[in-house]
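Whether sequence alone determines local backbone shape is best considered at the level of individual chains. We regard such an encoding as a compact summary of how the chain folds. The sequence in question and its structure tokens are set out directly beneath this paragraph.
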Amino acid sequence: MEPARKHALLWGLIGALAFGVLYQGYAIVGSGTVDVAVLVGGMIGAGVASAVLTPRAERRLLVAME
């Protein structure tokens, strides 16, 4: 696997796990219920968004730092 692809997938995993932690924290502090469909859907969405946007943001930041 290419290092850039592996890097993007790992950031996608981090994004998905971060969404899961934040959603469960909201459930503890706020409503007290965890809807599994919302949790899984949000984790998938956050993971895909992180994995897709990471390479683009990285390229943009590297160009801006030059």
The mean pLDDT is 89. The chain has two helices and no strands. Helices lie at 3-29, 36-65.
